[in-house]
Amino acid sequence: MAKLTKRQKMLAEKIVAEKLYGFDEALKTLREVAETTKFDETLEVAMNLGVDPRHADQMVRGMVSLPAGTGKTVKVAVFARGDNAEKAQAAGADKVGAEDLMEDMQAGNLDYDRVIATPDMMGVVGRLGKVLGPKGLMPNPKLGTVTPNVEQAIKDAKGGQVQYRVEKAGIVHSGIGKLSFSDDQLKENFKAFTDAVVKAKPSGAKGKYVQKISISSSMGPGLQIEAAEVEGA
């Protein structure tokens, strides 16, 4: 049997399998584990939901603004012309364009975290469905990424707004900040994210909606959180 590394030994000592943690205790445990890594890890939350996203009335998706931000730099591309293009540039968009931006994306330049478009640009953006769709980047009016108010959309994206979407297995997950954030900041972000997912419960969801909640750090283990920590779970 292979010898355990120091890190594996420490994890085995600190992590109790199948234990349900309060958020504060779980965060403290992840911080202790993260002390051995050399970078500022992201705290991630995963929620297993009682939905089947193959059915339209069980799809869970939306946007939520994290009060303490995400701690990461968000790259934003904007489809706009004229005044709106100038406003987007002034608001800090990383790339602004029209047909030229579409061609650039078709060529494979998709290094963006958010794509925003003004309504008049959807004829151009629509041709990128097969490129942006699989990456979850397709602008959508329901998510506020198709809007005449590009300045606000850019501000939201850069200021800590995250997008969530349930995967095939019924799991929603997202980064909710860096471990360098304070405990209060991370708890506030955790609450904002989980509240948004609970409120987004679709009409077709039957039975128990939130089935399991866990948090992890980039390099750390997943720790299961007590349902009582999440309102409505």
Automatic annotation (TrEMBL):
The keyword NADP does not apply. Keywords: Repressor, Ribonucleoprotein, Ribosomal protein, RNA-binding, rRNA-binding, Translation regulation, tRNA-binding. It comes from the Bacteria. GO terms for cellular component: cytosolic large ribosomal subunit. GO terms for molecular function: rRNA binding; structural constituent of ribosome; tRNA binding. PROSITE patterns: RIBOSOMAL_L1. This is Large ribosomal subunit protein uL1. It comes from Altericroceibacterium endophyticum.
